[in-house]
TrEMBL record:
The protein, known as: Bifunctional AP-4-A phosphorylase/ADP sulfurylase
InterPro entries in the record: Ap4A_phos1/2, Ap4A_phos1/2-like, Ap4A_phos1/2_N, ATP_adenylylTrfase_C, HIT-like_sf
Pfam families the UniProt entry points to: Ap4A_phos_N, ATP_transf
Transmembrane segments: none
Domain ATP adenylyltransferase C-terminal: 204-335
Gene symbol of the encoding locus: APA2
Provenance organism: Sporothrix epigloea
Domain Ap4A phosphorylase 1/2 N-terminal: 11-175
Annotated EC: 2.7.7.53
EC category: transferase
Amino acid sequence: MAPSHGLPAGLPHLVHDAFVRARAAGDLTFFPTQVALLRVHGVPFQLRFAPSLAKKPKPSDDKISKVPSKPFDPFENPPPGLLIVPQVGEAGSFTHRLVLNKFAISQDHSILATSDFRPQTHLLEAGDLAAAYACVNAYHEEGEELYVFYNSGTHSGASQPHRHLQLLPVRRMQEGVEPQMREECGGTMDGILVDQLAWTSATLPIFVAVAQLPESGGASAATLHATYLALYRQACAAAIHTSAINADGETVDAAAEESGTIPARMSYNLALTRKSMAILPRTAEGSMVSPGGGTLSLNGTVLAGTALVKSDAEWDALRNDASGLENVLVQIGVPVGSQTLKKEQTAAL
């Protein structure tokens, strides 16, 4: 099956070759991470120590939540060394471009950004999801799996106001996890977390709205968007009595929100794979690990079962204590208390 949306054949190899060139030229920053495995609610979590990410520039909340007058936009005219596919979309309607992430958290970390400015705080459009899903299928055609995530809102880990989804090859995300580590953690890693939440009995101590997608990889743009909106509604319903929902969230114009003309009423992370989609409502970007243990901030990699640690204090406080990570999760999401979370599964529409 030929790749769709103008994506070239052999996309994983094209991305990797571009990554190698860009790293050698100094166009991007990437350093291998240390990794530890923890189990939270019986689910393996990767704790990855990436101190280089502490140097990544972070804009103010004002820059994330509002359309800027004219600050630097890394996706408006990306450097040639980071550009992979300049035109992504249906024939005659190219809506996105694929670029390398200048601050990579794993090898071959790429970004699918809209060609024209679209706000990161507004709900995704069908075309955004279709383009991301086309990338997922392009990787699958080459025998690889891709994890896509989207950070939206001030509590989500979002770092740029220009709409973009982030793409991580699953194989690259699992580098450094040795068989002995898996055994010490109590078992193998049975796929990426979002797929476990959608297809198995795995749960988390916080609410996650999850849906199964057709295993054939044949979900249409309309199906993807309808599933996304259904999950978003579930997440809003779960978060309505928490600080996750904006003060006027109960009276928001849902039609305007879902058409993308006004900002979403809450911060959230979206995860997308070939098999699954999930939305995690967010109440905070991070939480203190322990007194003197630093503050751990989490973005959409959390739905892949990965927590990125940027300081020695966080790393030392968490790597041998899964309860610390579980406490952070409860602080950044909508907790389900001591009861085992009943997953709200939405069948693909």
